[in-house]
């Protein structure tokens, strides 16, 4: 993307700390993210890559506005962000339809809006027969499909995706990757996609950020970043032999 | 820097979340969600119960029956004062305290744990989080409404009279509702930080049941404490004492309750609501960390 453009979201030296309570009066500060800086431009598709536990999910929560940074600045130019997430506290004794409406409303849609899209949701989630059954009777795959279908109807300016592509059976996975690609290629949504799979990031993103040790290691063109990441994984394994170590 | 940039969109920025004056606009924007949440919670609760909303009647009735048995049969001699003679039938006196106390208990015990129970939502979506404990305060309103109809019916059956003064009930209840919502906001975000709050509330409500004029009238306390004025003062510090007595004055005397009874509860309610709103807004940005 052109550098002359204004970033929609800009992070400068952002850090997030959690208090871990050890006993009633003693607590320890734990930095989940220490120094994260990058700019997100309109219709970017930014991949965030790193191993498990490096603060990728914390970063998404930060972007979703669920929590705020403890240091550094995060400037949002006024765009709406939404985390594409499944399993949004389903009420088990209500039907799939009722849960879909409630879930959509929690994510900022109006009731009419989501009712109008209900047919699409049902078709996409392949739940035609079961949509009026209580969610308690759903398999975990069905719940995940419903969650994805609802979340996908939400049209935020910036869509945040947390590794959701591994949802449901092989067919549904293929389908969800496909619609995701479609949306990314259409360039009307800005996307932040978090994953530890270099392959998916390469497939879906044009830019990438590699987070390791709670700090942004590399940022930029997807190929450059992934090359650095894959190189780290290879050499990392060579050094340690058995389970790779972080921190 | 960039403060004007932050104004657009309904998204975020922690400073905006902390602003207390934005509570009302935020809540108005989220009203549809609040109604939906309350309605769905009610449906989920009674969907697979064969007797459904009948449970709202059974609970206060059973409570009233057992208390009536204990006090007008087992302890009949001691309790002769409790009913206050034929003017105030004992079961009506009991029920008038019970339904409002049970509302208080049900609302607070579910609101306290509501944020922790809803952690899936709180951690993933950005919305006006106040609606979670507020919804918990609205759900038992239905039970209260049904219990209130039961109370009026029983009052009429046992020879009581009703007049336009009954319309004062909502006025007094408004004070109780404000108090309940304020406490719900305080306790729910307190419970996020310290899970001890949940236990404390359970113990406190049990304590309050005996320390408030639920199954005995206030006159008995005043009578017993006539020698020790500080006991009466301490007793009246509990805002529920004035409120429950207010309800009884409306029902049995068909008039607006003594303003002196309601003044303190009203001050408490305003203070508690204000501090609840401020504390909730303050802790909102770090709430997701603690869940």
Terminal Cα separation of chain A, in Å? Answer: 33 Å
Helix count of chain B equals 15
Between the first and last Cα atoms of chain B, what is the distance in angstroms?
31 Å
**What does the largest sheet of chain A look like?**
6 strands, mixed
Oligomer: heterodimer
Rough outline of chain A:
globular
Counting DSSP E segments of at least 2 residues, the number of strands of chain B comes to 0
Q: Which stretches of chain A are poorly predicted, pLDDT < 50 over at least 5 residues?
A: 237-247
Question: What is the helix/strand order of chain A?
Answer: EEEHEEHHHHEHEHEEH
Mean pLDDT of chain B: 85
Major pleated sheet of chain B: none
Query: What is the overall number of helices of chain A?
Result: 8
Structure described in brief:
The complex is a heterodimer of chains A (247) and B (291). With 247 residues, chain A is α/β, with parallel strands linked by helices.
Protein architecture, described:
- The complex is a heterodimer of chains A (247) and B (291).
- Chain A is α/β, with parallel strands linked by helices and 247 residues long.
- Chain A is 37% helix and 27% strand.
- In chain A, strand 6 (158-162), helix 6 (170-186) and strand 7 (190-195) form a beta-alpha-beta unit.
- Chain A starts with 8 loop residues before the first strand and ends in a 7-residue tail after the last helix.
- Chain B has 291 residues and is an all-alpha fold.
- Chain B has one domain.
- Chain B is built from 15 helices and no strands.
- The chains are: A alpha/beta (247), B mainly alpha (291).
- Chains A and B meet through strand 4, strand 5 and helix 2 of A and helix 3, helix 7 and helix 15 of B.
